[in-house]
Specification:
This protein is an alpha/beta fold and 387 residues long. It has two domains: 116 residues, Aspartate Aminotransferase, domain 1 (Alpha-Beta Complex); 251 residues, Aspartate Aminotransferase, domain 2 (3-Layer(aba) Sandwich). The chain contains 13 helices and 13 strands. It has a seven-stranded mixed β-sheet with strand order 2-8-7-6-5-3-4, with helices on both faces. The chain has a four-stranded antiparallel β-sheet with strand order 9-10-13-12. Helix 6 links the parallel strand 3 and strand 4. Helix 3 packs antiparallel against helix 10, helix 4 crosses helix 10 and helix 11 packs parallel to helix 13. The radius of gyration is 22 Å and the shape is globular. The structure holds pyridoxal-5'-phosphate. Pyridoxal-5'-phosphate binds next to helix 5 and helix 6. The site of pyridoxal-5'-phosphate has 13 residues, from helix 5 and helix 6.
Amino acid sequence: MVKYFDVQAIRKLFPAVEKLVYLDSGFQTPLSRPVKEALETFIREGYETAGPKSIWIDRMEATRAKVARLLNAAPQEIAFTKNTSESMNIAANALPLKPGDNVLMVHGDHPNNTYAFLNLKRKGIETRFVPMTEVIDADSFRPRIDANTKAISMSHVTFHAGHRFDIYGVGDLCKERNLYYVLDIMQAVGVVPIDAKRTGACFIGSGTHKGLLVPQGLGFLYWNRELTELEPAYLAAISLATPPSDFIARPDDMAPAPTAGRFEIGNFNLPAIHALGAALDLIESIGVENIQNHCFDLGDRLIAGLDQLGIALVGPRHRENRAPHIYVAALPAAEWIDFLTEKGVRVSPERDGIRISLGMFNTASDVDRFLDAVRQRLSAARSNKAA
Ligand SMILES: Cc1ncc(COP(=O)(O)O)c(C=O)c1O
């Protein structure tokens, strides 16, 4: 295996992965020491000093700048949210759509981004689906665009089979046809390099509890700040260009902030944002490209092992259109999950098999331990049959 970074040193930061064969980053991250320390610092400060809020806010702004750097965006283009679902709902409701307009999506994409758009039916807006195929690119959408199509929304990486859709090609199509473009990068962020500007997206949303390594309950939303016609459906003092200094709400000055802060409402999930700052330091110190390459190499090893065992891979096989870190093996989940759990191997059940998902801390030996467990059971079943 090529050594892109010191994986053994990284493993020491994630105690859970020394105890389990953790192949479930597509579900949630195991917590790392830097994240735990950031959370503990917040608790200690709140507990002992009732919290220096101005310092907490400064730390939040530093984290915002790190999120922006990760996506090649400006800090003013990043809003903090609760999760992907909230980001997608904010995005869907900010698009200037009218009854009769339609939005194109991929059938079977994650429900947490799909419902945000399906719910626009209440406003007379239709969501139309292109079929989920191994490759989703501009050609998948082009024939479906009509005079009333105003937007395309999709995930970058699928949770259920590890497709990696062509976000840049579809972005070029949106530009050519003057369509709004909304992306869900929940399964990709932290593992796949993403250039927000190059996608041409107006909004990009995500949560942070997978590749970004923090506990559930924090998300973000990138907004292309040139698109000032995209206004928030919800408003609080903090969303305004000039929040009232006397804390009295007035109807005559409700212009939204010129930053992505226009999409933020109320107080923030400060402990999680601080934890995200620590996680992003770790990710930056390794480099997303290195994490991606490491996962791709482990994925090649996994695919070769599955081939040897005669187990089909559900979803794309080639690096051009597969995610580096999400693989589904065609093994019936109901028959395999308990067995693998007993063997100390953590994976997830999926629509068409079991999902093996990788992170920066996984090694070739994790992949081999999974394959060995599967091999043992298959050969035991074969011997029982022969007897
Ligand atoms: C593509 C995708 N979007 C969204 C989510 C989760 O949505 P939320 O962050 O709102 O919980 C997941 C998985 O949990 C996902 O795989």
